[in-house]
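Predict both folds.
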Amino acid sequence: MSGSSALAPWGVLGGLVAGWTANTTADGLYNGGLAGLLGGILTLAVVVGLGALNVVLSTGDVNAAGAIGAYVSVVVGLMIIPLFTVEGLIVGGIAPSLRELVP
């Protein structure tokens, strides 16, 4: 895996951490979804920023970097942010139950 798809486990990890601290399943869902959403937005900023920097340093063309950054931001925005949010919701909802099983 490479690119932004390699970051997919971060949505699960964020949901687990946020859900683990929740007292109820509803809190775990909310906290996990919010952690996944914020993680997806930060991933968007990092992936687009580093990609644009790579293009500028490789080609010296700022216009090409802007065009590629715009394309990547749409792709990441449509795929990664919802994926991280759903991962956070699922794991965040399960985490409070898992916490009860762990002594």
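Second protein follows, with its predicted structure tokens after the sequence.
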Amino acid sequence: MAASRSYVITAAEAERSAVLAAVSALFDERRLTDAAGAEVVDLPYVTHAFRGTRP
């Protein structure tokens, strides 16, 4: 997922490698194995939704 970000795609090779290595290290640090044996990472994600109405 990180490799598809535009700032990673357009970065110089050395910078791209550094970013992807950091993401890989973070995954290795935080990964869990679920009941099916898949390696996953919990990503806390908050969504705020707003709705406007006209009077």
